[in-house]
Amino acid sequence: MLKFLISGFEPFGGDIVNPTEALMQALEHEAVEGAVFKTLLLPVHFDECADLLIAEMKAFQPDVVIACGLAKGRTAITPERIAINVKDIPSGSYADNQGQHPVDEPIAAGSPDGLFSTLPIRAMVNDMVAAGIPATVSNTAGTYICNNTMYRVLDYIRIEQLPVQAGFVHFPASTEIAAMAPSVPSLPLSMMLDALHSMIRTLISESK
């Protein structure tokens, strides 16, 4: 039985919903054979988000950590390949939900410039595509909260030498968001939940 710690985020950037929050709520009532879930909703605050996720890792001691976030404008579900050691919000972009607006700041001074996901991202994508779910590997997690969270978790695992697989998955806007912004690409929440189940099953299969 694999223990999964799966996180999502609160709304940000002016949106009133975040599909990953809805995914966490749905997952609480779901079951996948061979898996035990713990879900966590994170604030869109630099550093605090990662602090809370790492604290839950210490308490729950998962085998797998899947952090989930919204990438508004993407057309597919995108497991991230790498997180980079920088916090940077370009001029004109929205700050985090506490108003922080870092520019060119390291996430962890002295740590590697980049850290790769340890999730089987190619197998995850292949299995989602085979199930008719739009998915592709992403080579940039950005420099905002999602990248910050992914990097901090991977760096914590690296420093502590933990036998934990971890990474980040971006989800497109939900149809609820698209209803307020019709030009934004979107997927139904039900398909996103199917995708999350698919990724969990891939991880279980890969662990055997």
What does this structure look like?
The protein has 208 residues and is α/β, with parallel strands linked by helices. It is 35% helix and 20% strand. It is built from 6 helices and 9 strands. Strand 8, helix 5 and strand 9 form a beta-alpha-beta unit. It is globular and about 45 Å long. The relative contact order is 0.23.
Q: What's the SSE blueprint?
A:
Blueprint (H helix, E strand, L loop, with lengths): L1 E8 L9 H9 L7 E8 L5 H13 L3 E7 L7 E2 L2 E3 L29 E3 L4 H10 L14 H16 L4 E7 L1 E2 H6 L5 E2 L1 H19 L1
Helix pairs in contact: 1-6, 2-4, 3-6
Order of helices and strands: EHEHEEEEHHEEHEH
Mean pLDDT: 94
The largest beta-sheet arranges its strands as: 2-1-3-7-4
**Helix coverage percent:** 25-40%
In short:
The chain has 208 residues and is α/β, with parallel strands linked by helices. It is 35% helix and 20% strand. α1 (19-27) crosses α6 (189-207), α2 (48-60) crosses α4 and α3 crosses α6.
What descriptive keywords fit this protein?
6 helices; single chain; alpha/beta; 208 residues; 20% strand
